[in-house]
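Let's practice the habit of predicting before peeking. Look at the sequence and jot down your guess about where helices and strands might fall. Then scroll down.
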Amino acid sequence: MTRKKKGLVLVLLIAVAAMGAFLLFQTGGKERQTLNKIIPDEVDLQVRDVVYTDVGSRGVKWEVRAAKGVFVRRDGEARLEGVTARILFDDGRSYEIRGDTGTYNTTTKDMALKGNVTIVSPGGERASTDQVYYHGKDRVLTTDSVVTLETEKSRLQGKGMILRIDTREMRLQKDISALLKGR
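Done guessing? Here is the structure:
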């Protein structure tokens, strides 16, 4: 091959490589734009590894953690995935509530958790259900679903629950069954 032909082949290879790189970068930019458009228009913020804390009245502190979350300012609502919420009292007591998904209203302090919900009390008692609602004004957790409550010595199950956070009073509403564990 002559020197002229080698030079021409080299120039063509460089041109093809440059064009390929240009197209690759253009496609990468379009993919990023498409990813940004996946976020719904009403969402103001989308984040991973969410940590939200709020100090309320009567010495109560909320700590909400989630794997992912979006915030919709118009509704004052955070929509969360992989949620762990802790209610911390000034006397050291705390409740831990976990769920697959949840919503938290930053104005009313109301929260709804759904999917594999567990509640662990300050005394170590564990309740499980498929959904629970926290009413911020009354500081009460409620559900109409089946609830299983386990302690060291017993296992209770019933439909519907009211848990008053301040007094640590829990009531199962109906269809209650109990199993006492032996030593």
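How did you do? Confidence is low (pLDDT under 50) at residues 29-37.
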